[in-house]
Amino acid sequence: MNDYACEAAMISKQAGVPVKLQWTREDDMQHDFYRVGGFHSFKGAVDKDGKLTAFGNHFITFTADGKGVVSGGDIGKEEFPAALVPNVRLTQSKLPLKIPTGPWRAPRSNSVAFAVQSFLHELSAAAKRDHLQFLLDLMGEPRHLPPGNESSLNTGRAAAVIKLAAEKAGWGKQLPAGRGMGLAFHFSHAGHFAEVAEVSVDANKKITVHQITVAGDVGPIINMSGAENQTEGAVIDGLSTALGLSLDIKNGRIQETNFDRYPILRIAKAPKVVSHFIQSDFSPTGIGEPALPPLAPALANAIFAATGQRVRTLPLSKEGYTV
Fold first, then answer.
1. pLDDT of 167-202, one tens digit each?
2. In whole angstroms, how far apart are CA 322 and each of 106, 126, 172?
3. Which residues contact 24 (CB under 8 A, 6 or more apart)?
4. Is the pTM of this model over 0.85?
5. Residues in contact with 258: Cβ distance below 8 Å, sequence separation at least 6, in sequence order
6. CA-to-CA distance for 112 and 104, rounded, in angstroms?
7. pLDDT of res. 105
8. pLDDT at 12 over 80
9. Structural domain of 120
10. At what angle do helices 295-307 and 109-126 cross, to 10 degrees?
11. What is the mean pLDDT of residues 266-277?
12. What CATH number is given to the structural domain containing 172?
């Protein structure tokens, strides 16, 4: 990721003086390092009590010269929720990719969480279970997975943030027609985060995001205003991307060259974000990344609650939704 550094060095060498190199936005957008998503083919089973008993995922991702690409990567037996389910099958296909890729906030988790957490909601809906209770049952007894690793998923911490987010959002309250709540959890970058989105959707698929409630556990928080700033930024970043950001490639060239075709969320559409933190005794970890991944599935699950329509593709604009 040093194209610009090499270019500046070469210009400086030719000019014989220090230089400042500044790309245009058009050059920056068309010669960047991009996030890849991928495709997931899920299967799942629930028992007569509505508990998850089997989980399968075939992940179609990408490879460059035989190596995994940033935000693509492998899936393993510790992949959530595989370690919590008695019967699991995880497989993948890797397609060759020549497009340069790079990290975006919460690399890999930012795309995987949407798929996995949305599918878990489909399973709880198929089982006619409340999604809050479905997730709590899935977590089971408090433990580290894998055991002995304090930086791994802790099911007790996960259950605590799920409960806290639901409680603070007023989960289960009566809502008018066309309005719904969606809940999602994700563990990434050693952070446990759950989020509840409350949205309205009108007959023209216009979305109003009323509030995002965030609950996180990253150990003891010293700078509370900084933590709140990070979660608010992560939510708005995730919402902006989930709603309308995508890049099209034609004949090897990125087609979107500026914000007229790459619609970053404007301030007037920014939702109210309410953050809550559990001041646990675990070693402190970062907060800048793990608050983003639960946003997209919470939003998609809320749309289903409001409309009965299931979203399986991002960005939402491709499904006809606007804000």
1. 999 999 999 999 999 999 999 999 999 999 999 999
2. 25, 27, 26
3. none
4. yes
5. 25, 26, 29
6. 13
7. 92
8. yes
9. 39-144+151-319
10. 30
11. 96
12. 3.30.365.10
